[in-house]
């Protein structure tokens, strides 16, 4: 095979956001659009590109297969030595992170727009993960963007065909050099990892029931995203759950019309089924398998911030952490502060990082962090460098198996011990970008004026006094790098907080997110509804 150099013109909108480049499919289908971005990713590898090994796969959404075939041809023409590709082009995001680490590759390309809807007129995305298995840090994505705006050509082997539907190693000679594509089982390595982390025997016993203990009924919803095959292998084949315990397990290009975002709004099918009270535990995952929602009996909802805190308080039950020890806890800045209280009670180190999983990676690489999470239904640990939906569900089941308590019971006893952080998030989607930027700028001016500190707000007979207000700037404790302007923070004296920031994952317009986190330690008040508590509070502010 011979590679060719194709002249192109640069695009000015290929700036990766919180987690990769996300646009409408039709944008990626423009002539040279996908080619340019992939070439820029490869160029960013610099001297490491020649002879490199990369992982490639995606969440099965529309355009994944086309893009995968294109990427194989572009990698072949750029001196990549080998690509490890998931069969049918399928890999969950956690599975890619695992393979990068397990096979020591230079990185991986993940084809996903995560929880955004899929289909010909919906979203697609390309994300680059570096050799630690995590999303590329800001300096790498900035470099990729710089390359895109000046790109004049890309390299490709136009007639190279690879059958990614059949497992095996395919060898090609490109410009006199060997190029390999290894098409692998998409689930095997990931399932192997889960079996190393958890005690599958005890989970099997939990689900089956034992003397004096009823079977523990679960309901797992893959929302027609990538986790289907993983869920089937783990929960049915390995743990012995029956077929009716798993739903929407066929990855579909348009997710069957579902919006594959595991929350109370979009995972309504799971919520309704759980309300019937037959199942003890429910979980749903997003399109690419890194997000999770956990429900208890009768659809008792666990906020992701609480999920993180409860897992933190019981992490010692998970065999993996018995070996590694618990090195530290972390959450993203807008996530409610429930884990903070577990950290201070246990004396375990705690970190607060900006939104987006990439910031946890450097702490994990430095052995400072074991468990972390985000309010946006993200939970994970240092077993990989991405959040991990299935891992979170298994972690909950492991805690339940050891504590012998249900989901709601675990939460209520947690609140009684630590107090409760009431958390809500409000999203305002598709707003005009310029106006939103101006609004944040004005807001920053107001809250950073010296007179703002000490402002008192009275809501429902409770007074909140502003202790600190700023635009969050993160200093990475490992490399000292600064990441400024990560969101406006109003911090109140009792630990309650209001955060305002702009989303970095939308595919059009701007999304404003407002996060409200208030703390209550009065036992008589901890069982209230978070929405009711916050709605008026927000407007008073
Ligand atoms: C959102 C979430 C953030 C998450 C990111 C990627 O980002 O708020 O917590 O890390 O999505 O998740 P933003 O910038 O829109 O707020 V996923 O499942 O898309 O990889
Ligand atoms: Co996701």
Query: Treating each run of at least 4 consecutive H or I residues as one helix, how many helices?
Result: 17
Envelope shape: globular
Q: How would you classify the helix and strand content by structural class?
A: alpha/beta
What is the straight-line distance between the termini?
65 Å
* CATH homology-level superfamily of the largest domain: Alpha-D-Glucose-1,6-Bisphosphate, subunit A, domain 3
* Overall mean confidence score, pLDDT: 95
GO biological process, one term: glucose metabolic process
Family: Belongs to the phosphohexose mutase family.
Enzyme class: isomerase
GO cellular component, one term: cytosol
Throw out a few tags for this protein.
about 550 residues; alpha/beta; Alpha-D-Glucose-1,6-Bisphosphate, Chain A, domain 3; TATA-Binding Protein; 3 domains; seven-stranded mixed sheet; six-stranded antiparallel sheet; 17 helices; about 25% strand; globular; binds alpha-D-glucose-1-phosphate-6-vanadate; binds cobalt (II) ion
Question: Can you describe this structure in just a few lines?
Answer:
Helices cover 32% and strands 26% of the residues. Strand 17 and strand 18 form a beta hairpin.
Describe the structure.
The chain has 541 residues and is of the alpha/beta class. It has 3 domains: 4-186, Alpha-D-Glucose-1,6-Bisphosphate, Chain A, domain 3, CATH 3.40.120.10; 189-418, Alpha-D-Glucose-1,6-Bisphosphate, Chain A, domain 3; 421-540, Alpha-D-phosphohexomutase, C-terminal domain (TATA-Binding Protein, 2-Layer Sandwich), CATH 3.30.310. The protein is built from 17 helices and 26 strands. It is globular, with a radius of gyration of 23 Å. Bound molecules: alpha-D-glucose-1-phosphate-6-vanadate and cobalt (II) ion (CO). Residues 114-115, 286, 288, 290-291 line the site of cobalt (II) ion.
């Amino acid at each position: 095979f011979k590679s060719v150099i194709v002249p192109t013109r640069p695009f000015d909108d290929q700036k990766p956001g919180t987690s990769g480049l996300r646009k409408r499919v039709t944008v990626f289908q423009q002539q040279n659009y996908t080619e340019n971005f992939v070439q820029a990713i490869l160029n960013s590898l610099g001297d490491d590109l020649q002879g490199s090994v990369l992982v490639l796969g995606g969440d099965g959404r529309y355009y994944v297969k086309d893009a995968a075939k294109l990427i194989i041809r572009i990698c072949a023409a750029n001196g990549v030595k080998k690509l490890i590709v998931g069969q049918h082009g399928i890999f969950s995001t956690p599975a890619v992170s695992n393979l990068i680490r397990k096979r020591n590759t230079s990185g991986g390309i993940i084809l996903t727009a995560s929880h955004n809807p899929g289909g010909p007129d919906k979203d697609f995305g390309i994300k680059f993960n570096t050799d630690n298995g995590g999303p590329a840090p800001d300096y790498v994505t900035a470099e990729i963007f710089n390359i895109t705006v000046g790109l004049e050509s890309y390299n490709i082997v136009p007639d190279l065909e690879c059958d990614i539907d059949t497992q095996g190693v395919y060898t090609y000679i490109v410009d006199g050099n060997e190029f390999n594509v290894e098409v692998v089982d998409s689930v095997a390595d990931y399932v192997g990892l889960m079996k190393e982390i958890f005690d599958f025997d005890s989970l099997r016993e939990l689900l089956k029931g034992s003397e004096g203990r009823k079977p523990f009924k679960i309901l797992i919803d893959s929302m027609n995203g990538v986790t289907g095959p993983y869920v089937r292998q783990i929960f049915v084949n390995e743990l012995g759950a029956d077929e009716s315990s798993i739903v929407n397990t066929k990855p579909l290009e348009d997710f069957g019309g579902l919006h594959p975002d595991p929350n109370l709004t979009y995972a309504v099918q799971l919520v309704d089924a759980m309300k019937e009270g037959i199942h003890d535990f429910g979980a749903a995952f997003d399109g690419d398998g890194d997000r999770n929602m956990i429900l208890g009996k009768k659809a008792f909802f666990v906020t992701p911030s609480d999920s993180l805190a409860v897992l933190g308080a019981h992490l010692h039950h998970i065999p993996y952490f018995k070996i590694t020890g618990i090195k530290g806890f972390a959450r993203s800045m807008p996530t409610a502060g429930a884990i903070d209280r577990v950290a201070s009670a246990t004396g375990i180190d705690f970190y607060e990082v900006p939104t987006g999983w990439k910031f946890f990676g450097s702490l994990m690489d430095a052995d400072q962090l074991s468990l972390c999470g985000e309010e946006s239904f993200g939970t994970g640990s240092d077993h990989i460098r991405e959040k991990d939906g299935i891992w979170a569900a298994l972690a909950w089941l492991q805690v339940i198996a050891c504590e012998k308590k249900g989901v709601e019971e675990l939460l209520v006893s947690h609140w009684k011990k630590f107090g409760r952080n009431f958390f809500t998030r409000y999203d305002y989607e598709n707003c005009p970008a310029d106006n939103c930027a101006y609004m944040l700028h004005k807001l920053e001016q107001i809250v950073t004026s010296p007179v703002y500190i000490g402002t008192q707000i009275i809501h429902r007979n409770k007074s909140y006094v502003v202790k600190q207000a700023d635009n969050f700037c993160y200093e990475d404790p490992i490399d000292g790098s600064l990441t400024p302007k990560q969101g406006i923070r109003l911090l109140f004296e009792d630990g309650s907080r209001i955060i305002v920031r702009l989303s970095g994952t939308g595919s059009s317009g701007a999304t404003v997110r407002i996060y409200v986190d208030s703390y209550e330690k009065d036992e008589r008040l901890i069982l209230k509804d978070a929405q009711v508590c916050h709605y008026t509070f927000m407007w008073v502010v």
